[in-house]
Design brief:
TIM Barrel; two-stranded antiparallel sheet; single chain; 11 helices; globular; alpha/beta; 37% helix; 8-stranded parallel β-barrel
């Protein structure tokens, strides 16, 4: 049989013939407004402390965080999420809800300078407490219900400073309901809640703990963060947080849990965020530095995959680079 004897009426390659054609029929479109850019904010002025395990990312003083957020906004990135590094730590984490706390300072500065920037604040205890855990402790036990009152105070202080969205990340049972109640009772009904509804006890958080200086002083977080082996449990966590008033839900980390992102997208109608976490970022940076991967092509493929899995929003340390690359997007289908 010759090639002239064998007819191919269906040729999928026809729609891959040029970059313009591939772009036109693309099923998933990645854009800068899909991204949320994390910022680590510390006290002082003119401070940019590079984070060794996260090349290109630094702890920033308020003035530098304002500059960084302005650059992100210029690139089309609509939102930042703030993580504070306190001046001092204590068992409760009092700076977490202090009017002059670092997150409160930077929130006010950002909303003054860039009123249209969406400011999201992380609501947890780990960076602020001397023990480094996500809740109050008694001995080595993490206390759930007493922690809820502290989370209410934190969320309220962030709302008062001008936060658009508060994002509870501690995986305490009932945290969304407690925060929603507190916000509504104090006339912050317009402040949204982005819940870290599905947060796994992951090995990919290591560099973040360097950046936020929030590693636990004893034990681990397996008593409240989810078992990586579980998927059905993720459905339950999402259901509970939506019932308690979450406006959006998050899956964290992203890459090892693309199946959970897809499951969550199919489960609910609210926006779904995915956190492309520090360990995922550090792996690509290390491989690119060694010449093992093309950083630009790899990052854009990675972020496209997260969005294709079902994420509406992606928290990523690659945000500025990716937004810049998307201005002249390469044909990553090669």
């Amino acid at each position: 049989m010759t090639t002239t004897d064998f007819k191919l009426p269906i040729r999928p390659r026809r729609l891959r013939a040029s970059a313009s054609l591939r772009s036109m029929v693309s099923e998933t479109h990645l854009a800068a407004n899909d991204f949320i850019y994390p910022l680590f904010v510390t006290h002082g002025a003119g401070v940019r402390n590079p984070i060794e395990s996260m090349p290109g990312i630094a702890q920033l003083s308020v003035d530098q965080a304002v500059l960084e957020a302005g650059e992100a906004l210029t690139l089309g990135i609509p939102a930042v999420v703030l993580f504070g590094i306190p001046a001092t730590k204590d068992p409760v984490g009092e700076e977490n809800f202090a009017p002059a706390g670092i997150v409160q300072q930077v929130t006010r500065a950002l909303k003054t300078e860039y009123p249209d920037l969406i400011v999201i604040t992380d609501v947890c205890l780990c960076e602020y407490t001397s023990h480094g855990h996500c809740g109050l402790i008694e001995g080595e036990q993490i206390l759930n219900d007493p922690t809820l009152e502290i989370l209410q105070r934190v969320a309220l202080s962030h709302a008062e400073a001008g936060a658009d969205i508060v994002a509870p990340s501690g995986m305490m049972d009932g945290m969304v309901g407690a925060i929603r109640t507190a916000l509504d009772e104090h006339d912050f009904t317009q402040v949204s809640i982005l819940s870290y509804a599905v947060k796994y006890a992951s090995a990919f958080y290591g560099p973040f703990r360097d950046a936020a200086e929030g590693a636990p002083k004893f034990g681990d977080r397996k008593s409240h963060q989810m078992n990586p082996a579980n998927a059905r449990e993720a459905r339950r966590e999402v259901e509970l947080d939506l019932a308690e008033g979450a406006d959006m839900v998050m899956v964290k980390p992203a890459l090892p849990y693309l199946d959970i992102i897809r499951q969550t997208r199919e489960q609910c109608a609210v926006p779904v965020a995915a956190y492309n976490v520090s360990g995922e970022y550090a792996m690509i940076k290390a491989a690119a530095a060694n010449g093992w991967l093309n950083e630009q092509a790899t990052v854009l493929e990675l972020l496209t995959g997260i969005k294709r899995a079902g994420a509406d929003l992606i928290i990523t340390y690659h945000a500025k680079d990716a937004a810049s690359w998307l201005t002249n997007r390469p044909d990553i289908s090669n």
